[in-house]
Amino acid sequence: EAQLVESGGGLVQPGGSLRLSCVASGFTFGNYDMHWVRQAPQKGPEWVSRIYSSGSSADYADSVKGRFTVSKDNAKNTLYLQMTSLTPDDTAVYYCVCRGRGHWGQGTQVTVSS
């Protein structure tokens, strides 16, 4: 059974950094593009980033471009999201998503607050 498990969320002050991880199992991780999607309180899901299956290229939402970096370690079946210069607007539950298989992780909460 395919599974995605995120970790690394928490409470951080504005201007701080966090690194999220997502460990995949049950499918050939290296064959799939992977996405990060976030959902803020009382808002709909917002696409954050996509990384191509090989990890060679990535795309970002304008709201995070220049501050977030996505990476993929196919040998470890792990997806990462390095987040810097965080603001309260980044507060959300962050999900890793394999759209090709329709799988979402359970999410990890990121709260940016002083």
Structure characteristics:
114 residues; 11 strands; seven-stranded mixed β-sheet; mainly beta
List the helices and strands and how they pair.
Elements: E1 3-7, E2 10-12, E3 18-25, E4 34-39, E5 45-51, E6 58-60, E7 68-73, E8 78-83, E9 92-98, E10 103-104, E11 108-112
Parallel strand pairs: 2-11
Antiparallel strand pairs: 1-3, 3-8, 4-5, 4-9, 5-6, 7-8, 9-10, 9-11
Structure report:
The protein has 114 residues and is mainly beta. The chain has no helices and eleven strands. Strands 2, 4, 5, 6, 9, 10 and 11 form a seven-stranded mixed beta sheet that branches. It is globular. The relative contact order is 0.33. The model has no long low-confidence stretch (mean pLDDT 97).
Structural class: mainly beta
Kindly report the oligomeric state of this protein.
single chain
β content, as a range? Answer: over 45%
Low-pLDDT residue intervals, each spanning 5 or more residues = none
Query: What is the number of beta strands?
Result: 11
What distance separates the N and C termini?
A: 40 Å
* Integer average pLDDT: 97
Described by strand count, sense and barrel closure, the largest sheet is: 7 strands, mixed
Helix-strand string: EEEEEEEEEEE
Instruction: Tell me the Rg in angstroms.
Output: 13 Å
Shape: globular
Task: Determine the fraction of residues in helical runs and give it as a percent range.
Answer: under 10%
Total helical segments? 0
Summarize this structure briefly:
Helices cover 0% and strands 51% of the residues.
